[in-house]
Amino acid sequence: MMVKQSPGRLAAMIVGVTAVVVLSTSRLALHGEKPEPPAPTHDQEPELATFMGTLQRHSMKLGYSIDGRNQPLAAFYLHETREVLAELRELHQRVPEGDGLPIGKTSHIIMTPSLEMLADNLKKPDWPTAELAYHALVKGCNDCHTATQHQFIVVLPAQGPPPFNQKFNGP
């Protein structure tokens, strides 16, 4: 059952709450302070599947960019792919194992050579060799899955029409 508030009392409550919010926000803004987020605990760490889904999406877009001979876009998705792998490695430093396996360390060891080869070939750009390096990258994903007892997860190179509402062909 709701208790009926007088209009004056309700207005005073709204003004009071608004003042607290405004003053708190103003103090933070004036002093350049940002509220500190709580440090994540082990159970608050992001799911490995979240990293892998992002990695798969970026690597697929990387493949479509290479097929489209779009050097700037391919370089962008290569950067994004590397960034996710770096985050995974950072997670490995905080939580050394995922499902009892050193996922971050293993992915770094397996993926680094093909990422470097792909980066070199995109700078030129040498498209036939970049395609080979991209396929080596995808093979690295599957090698990593096998090394970490997830061989049932098989990544395929980007193929067919892109499932994204994005243009991948170069200029």
Using brief descriptors, characterize the structure shown.
single chain, 171 residues, mainly alpha, 5 helices
Please provide a written account of the structure:
Helices cover 64% and strands 0% of the residues. With 171 residues, it is mainly alpha-helical. Helix 2 (48-67) runs antiparallel to helix 3, helix 3 (71-94) runs antiparallel to helix 4 (103-123) and helix 4 packs antiparallel against helix 5. The longest helix is centred in the N-terminal third of the chain and has 24 residues, at 7-30. The radius of gyration is 24 Å and the shape is globular. Mean pLDDT is 80; it is low at 20-29.
Q: What's the average pLDDT?
A: 80
- The helix/strand class is mainly alpha
Q: How much strand content do the residues show?
A: under 5%
The profile of the biggest β sheet is: none
Q: Can you write the helix and strand succession as a string?
A: HHHHH
List the helices and strands and how they pair.
Elements: H1 7-30, H2 48-67, H3 71-94, H4 103-123, H5 127-147
Helix pairs in contact: 2-3, 2-5, 3-4, 4-5
Short description:
By secondary structure, the chain is mainly alpha-helical.
